[in-house]
Amino acid sequence: MPLAALGLSATYRLLTCRARGRLRPVVRLGCAIALGIGCFCGAYFVPEEQGKGSDRHLETPFEYLEKQNEPPASEDEAEWRRPYGEDKAAFAEEVKAIVGDAVVVNQPYDGSLYLYGVDGLHLLYRYMSGYGEDEGETEASRVIREHLNLYASDPAVQEAVRQTHARYVLQLSADGRGVGRFGPAYYPERWEGISSIGPGTPGFTLVLARGNMRLYRIDGAAALEGDSLLKAVDEVMTESPSEDPAGEGEPETVETSR
Fold first, then answer.
1. Containing H/E element for 170?
2. What SS3 state is found at 109?
3. Beta strands 166-171 and 213-218: pairing type?
4. What whole-number distance in Å separates Cα of residue 91 and Cα of residue 115?
5. How confident is the model at residue 258 (pLDDT cuts 50, 70, 90)?
C-alpha cells in the first residue's frame, strides 16, 4: 500500500507538471481523482484467476476479501480460520518446553510460521514463499517437504534430516483444515511429506496432541548425526600418514646436558 501511494503521487506530479499552463487547476485535480478511482477499481474489481485444479475460477479481489471476512458458522470453524490464536499459543508453549532449541519441521501455511518470531521455536520453514524450483531452496529442504513421511525407509530422507538437524515435526492442523487459507502460493502436493505424517507413520513418535494439533519426534534423528561423525572420525584415523616432504625421516633426538 505505501508503494502504491508513492506511485500514485509520482504519477500525479508528473501529470500536473505536463498539464501546467494547459489546464486549469480544477481540471487537473479532477483528472487526478479520476486516475485514483480508476486505479482503485482496477485493483479490487477486475477478476483474477483463483484456486487450483478443479477449484480454479475467476474472482475479484473484492470478492476474495468479502469471503475472508465472512462470519464463521461455528466456533470450530472460527478456530481453524484463525492463523494464530490462544489455543495455538498455548500449544506452542508446551512444544517449546519439550523441544527446547531443537530444529522443528513445520508446515508454514497452518500458522506455525508465527511460532518462530512470537514463541522462539527453531522452525525449519519460516516463510510462505521460497519453495520449489528456481527459488534457491536446498535439496535437503525439498526432500523433507515432499518425502519426510518416508523417513524410516528412505536413505535420502534420512540424509536430509541429518543435514538439517531436524528432530521434531509440528502440525497445527493435523487434518488440513484451514491450511493455506492465507497463502495464495500454497500447493498441497509440495508439503505431502509433512502433512501425511500420522500416529501410525513409521519413524515418528507422537509426543504431544491437543485438539487438531500434533507434535512428533523423529526417531533416531540424533543417532544419524552421531553415526556420521563417527564415520568421519574413522576416515581420518584410517588415512595413511603423509610422506615426509623433506625426506628427512625421523626427527633427531636432541640431548640436553644436565
1. strand 166-171
2. helix
3. antiparallel
4. 10
5. very low
Most confident segment among 24-28, 37-41, 242-246? 37-41
Provide the 3-class DSSP secondary structure of residue 161. helix
Are 89 and 119 a contacting pair, CB within 8 Å?
Answer: yes
CB atoms within 10 A of CB 187: 13
Contact in structure between 170 and 104 (CB atoms under 8 Å): yes
Nearest-angstrom CA–CA distance, 78 and 75: 5
d(CA 139, CA 152): 19
Its pTM stands at 0.63
How would you list the strands of the sheet with 103-105, edge to edge?
Answer: 122-123, 103-105, 166-171, 213-218, 204-210
**How many whole angstroms separate alpha carbon 64 and alpha carbon 69?**
9
From 7, 174, 180, 2, select the one nearest 88 (Cα to Cα).
174
Residue 227, phi then psi, degrees to nearest 5: -65, -40
Q: Which three cell numbers stand for residue 159?
A: 540424509
Is pLDDT above 60 for 103?
yes
Cα separation values, 88 from 44, 95, 229, Å: 32, 10, 37
Name the residue type at position 196: S
Residues with Cβ < 8 Å from 152, sequence gap 6 or more? Answer: 201, 202, 203, 219
